[in-house]
Amino acid sequence: MSDRKPLDSESAQVAIQSACVEALVGANLLAIAVVRNDKLLHASPAFERMFRLERDATPASFYTLIDERDRVLVAQALAAPGDVAIGLRALRGDGSRFDVELSATRATLPDGPATVVALFDITGHGQRRPAPLPTTGTLPARVQWGPRYEVGIEVIDGQHRHLLGLINRLQDALSAGGEIEQLVESLRELVRYTEHHFATEERLMDEVGASAERHRGEHQHLLEGLMRFTAKLDTASVSESSHFLQDWLFRHIDEVDRPFGALLRSRGQH
Predict the structure, then answer these.
(1) What pTM was estimated for this model as a whole?
(2) What pLDDT score does 144 carry?
(3) Contact criterion met (CB below 8 Å) for 242 and 132
(4) Quick count: other Cβ atoms within 10 Å of Cβ 135?
(5) Residue 245 has pLDDT above 50, yes or no
(6) Is CATH 1.20.120.50 correct for 147-266?
């Protein structure tokens, strides 16, 4: 008799959420923290950089990083049952204040419920409005890589092709009713490789002296989307994530990476 747990079982959802939150907290590009009540349980490297915290000097209390006037607002956001996005003032380790948007999502972890928060520095930009995730419960059509998706830069095209392969693998694991471990590993690899790809693109932009602001904003948007659905994974939200990732990848190629590829080619890169 198989001891495989259905993907929608409570224990499976906890295992998947825990693994994906762990992967996101390890990410370098998105400021993410896991908070329970006032306690700061985990923080990503990007979170520590944003708040200018010394390594291994992350405070135990999350509220100490929030301006006193906004702490009640933050407490309400962390206690809310659904997804919440608010603007507030935060405090860096050196005491300076800056404007952030906080996006909060509830998650169930092995040691109990917690809130996963993503923070975005919006100083001088105003509050961000993250795009909603799709609500359909059906898997998108499986798409194979083709010439129409190429931007003409070998390393970028190769990484886009691999990202599409990871999205397809996620769909295959879901549609085949695969083992929990298989789905978790697909999601972990997707987070790891997405960040590797973003770092490659941003390095290339730095090398040619191009502004990476729009790219970084796009990259943060995708990572935020990953955070939002991985914190509440079940069969329906994995399906939503497949739509979200596939739509994001193709839109990003057409609107952002294709012009960037033309710029790189004009400067002798292929």
Answers:
(1) 0.67
(2) 85
(3) no
(4) 8
(5) yes
(6) yes
